[in-house]
Amino acid sequence: MDELKYHYKYPHPAITADAVVFGFDGKVLHLLLVERGLEPYKGSWALPGGFMRIDETVEQCAARELMEETGVTDVYLEQFHTFSSVGRDPRERVVTVAFLAMVRKSDFRLIAGDDASRACWFEVDELPPLAFDHHDIISMAREHIKEVLHTRPIAFKLLDYKFTMDELQRLYEAINGTTYDRRNFRKKMVSTGLLQPKSCSRPQGTNRAFNYFTFDEEAYDEQQAADPKGRNPFNL
Fold first, then answer.
1. What's the rounded Cα separation, in Å, for the pair 61 and 95?
2. Nearest partner of 83 among 44, 47, 40, judged by Cα
3. Among 91, 47, 92, 39, residue whose Cα is nearest residue 65
4. CA atoms of 128 and 170, how far apart (whole Å)
5. Would you call 51 helix, strand, or coil by DSSP?
6. Helix, strand, coil share (%) of the chain residues, nearest 5
7. Rounded mean pLDDT of the chain?
8. Which of 10, 20, 68, 201 is 20 to 30 A from 127 via CA?
């Protein structure tokens, strides 16, 4: 093997990528975790992630680790922070680039593999003890998703193609940690002109009919193209 032309004589850190993956079941916000199959923290729960290979980008690393450890693929990953505290990993000096992902929980079948023993969804307010500094990463991710919700209609990435207004309201409440008046919330959302009503559905064994909606993403994109600095119409 040819000797490298340039050498860096000082110690340098390893880089990892972790994914904070949110899912929504129509009532409660969930987070995707894996049970570690290797030391350190063997048997503890952690975010999906791992070390970046020498021949890949950190984005490719995040997507690969997520696929290998959970079976989740083809999701949009958004980088939101870098964690570099000294001593955050007992193995060596490690810097982690954290990514945010939002998926429709029903879209994916989880398959734990690689160095993960299990992959499971947990309610965001009922998480188990976590490895490394992953509690801090998740806390920052929750604040980040709350901030992004004010500027972009990201909530619809967590909903099925057809959803009820109650589901949309519960999702907003779960992300923002607050409650909204049902009538005012509906009025605000419908006033955007970007929710298309669909046929009613009456689940078997119930007397209540549910009105469904879809998000008109194409109309939203056209609106933003016409006014790139325009306010997010779904901001509360």
1. 13
2. 47
3. 47
4. 23
5. strand
6. 30, 25, 45
7. 90
8. 68
